[in-house]
Amino acid sequence: MAKLTLSFVSAYNERVEPLMNGTIQAEGVELIPTYSDPSETFWRQLKFKEFDVSELSLSSYLIARSRGMDFIAIPVFPARRFFHAELSYHGDSGIKQASDIAGRRIGVGEYQQTASLWVRGTLEHDFGVSQYKVDWWMERTEELSHGGATGFTPPKGISFNRIPPDKSIASMLVNNEIDVASVTRAFSRESNIIDRSTHIRAQGGDWSKVKPLFPDRMAEAARFVKQHGFAPANHAYAIRGDVARKYPWLAFNLYKAFFAAKEAWRDRFVESLPSGLFFGREYVAKTREILGDDPYPYGIKANRPMLDTIINYSHEQGLTPQKAKIEELFAPATLDL
């Protein structure tokens, strides 16, 4: 029997790459891969439903589903970061610790994106900084934002501003026009049409005044995991609803393939460390100390605390009108995984 041919879009990710290059295949499926920056992928999929299977922002997925958009997710989460621990501040802002962010100006790529959701939730629940006590500055334009594609606008009571089109998060932070932001994009070689920080990089200016909010990010990550029990996920993968309904077996077969791809990465993880990373094995040992042997657990059972938290944060931040039910967010064939 001929295989089902599906379009598949993802960023490069070591835990997904075996599916992209075909070394691992989903049973009964031939995936036609497209590599794409996540910012562009999510906009394209939310606006045009361009692909059969797509990497998708968890926050945008929750919003899209709350607005009746026709996708169904697979419980695989190969992208995780401690987003609040990546924040930097301008030295002239007077900020010394996370609780000092109240009343300050914070730059984000997009208000609804998952990174911003985790930052807001962590600042509020762990450090007492309400989202209503911060001035938010968003870099993306209305036309090229995920919020523009879903019709989302920030809730009433939020101090919301747009970064001028000739500036970026990075340029505003280094020039003390905002107080706090994550500027990792400004130092990446990757670029995309959605995020201005990838091409307005602000390499000029006095970067010595930009300081990490958490100088020991590993220690802060360990604190977060000890308190919450998980590492925050920001992306999942979703099937277009019409495709999932037509092929009810598809989600389970894709899950198995995603899981096999991740396990292949785990098997060669230490051996594949770049030779230039002199202390790579020490970092691996520290990662395992904080997160255990599997930093990227898949399935609903292993991720229920994380999923409950992101659903709660989404609702309390005004991104979604009610708390979604996990059983309605993921394909029926994956609910017992």
Question: What features would you describe in this structure?
Answer:
The chain has 337 residues and is of the alpha/beta class. The chain has 2 domains: 4-80 and 231-334, Periplasmic binding protein-like II (D-Maltodextrin-Binding Protein, domain 2), CATH 3.40.190; 83-226, D-Maltodextrin-Binding Protein, domain 2 (3-Layer(aba) Sandwich), CATH 3.40.190. It has helices at 17-20, 38-48, 58-66, 114-127, 146-150, 169-174, 217-228, 241-246, 250-268, 280-291, 300-316, 326-329; strands at 4-10, 29-35, 53-57, 71-80, 88-90, 105-108, 135-138, 159-162, 180-181, 210-212, 233-240. Strands 8-7-6-9-5-10 form a 6-stranded mixed sheet. The chain has a 5-stranded mixed sheet with strand order 2-1-3-11-4, with helices on both faces. Helix 7 runs parallel beside helix 10. The protein starts with a strand and ends in an 8-residue tail after the last helix. 42% of the residues are buried.
